Amino acid sequence: MNKTRIAVAGAGSIGLAHIAVAQKSPTCTLSAVVDPAPAAESVAAKAGVPLFKSLEELFGSDRPDGVILATPNQLHVDHALKCIDAGLPMLLEKPIAAAMEEGERLVKIAEASGAKMLIGHHRAHSPIMAKAKEIVDRGTLGPLVAVMGSAVFFKPDHYFADAPWRREIGAGSAVTSSRCRPLRRARRVAFR
User: What φ, ψ does residue 142 adopt, rounded to 5°?
Assistant: First the structure.
């Protein structure tokens, strides 16, 4: 059986997590790392894969089976469009875009082109969510009439120091524009 060849764009903390999963996968193999930062050289060398400074450079010399985009939020739309143009499936880390309007534009382009795009919202698959669903399904809480959820996660100082772009406008939450209308077509429901 041939393993699915996955390139990871972005060698920061989230990219490193994807790289580790790809390396342990029985069905996938890490084919390349894409990142212009000097620190990415050691990441690619340690993983034993080639390093490309850009998606254009990758697509010019290799064609992976898919790409994981774990790049800074402000680059999500541009990088996703490059994958769409190359006809490659992608996992695009959340948020879809740094601004609502950009995200809506990307969703329209992806739908029109038939692009294969998955938004990396891992919390839908967390053990905490699975346990909550189990409790609801068992009827432990009685008849469900409404649900409200909130989650706040502490980010240590190094999370921002290692990637200063995270302090910039557009690097925050999934809703980063003044228009707080959700991306209906891109939304996923945790409980199915």
Answer: 85, -165
Say if CB 8 and CB 34 are below 8 A apart.
yes
CA end-to-end span of the chain: 32
Q: What is the DSSP string of the chain?
A: -PPEEEEEE--SHHHHHHHHHHHH-SSEEEEEEE--STTHHHHHHHHTS-EESSHHHHHHH---SEEEE-S-GGGHHHHHHHHHHHT--EEEESSS-SSHHHHHHHHHHHHHHT--EEEE-GGGG-HHHHHHHHHHHHTTT-S-------------HHHHHS-GGGGSTTSSSS--SS-----GGG---S--
Residue burial 65-89, b: 16+ Cβ < 10 Å; e: rest: ebbbbbbbbbbbbebbbbbbeeebb
For the chain, 192 residues long, the average pLDDT of each consecutive 10-residue run is 94 93 95 96 97 98 96 94 97 91 95 94 78 90 82 75 72 45 39 32
CB atoms within 10 A of CB 93: 22
Its pTM surpasses 0.85: no
85: nearest Cα among 68, 100, 104, 106: 106
Overall residue count recorded for the chain in this entry: 192
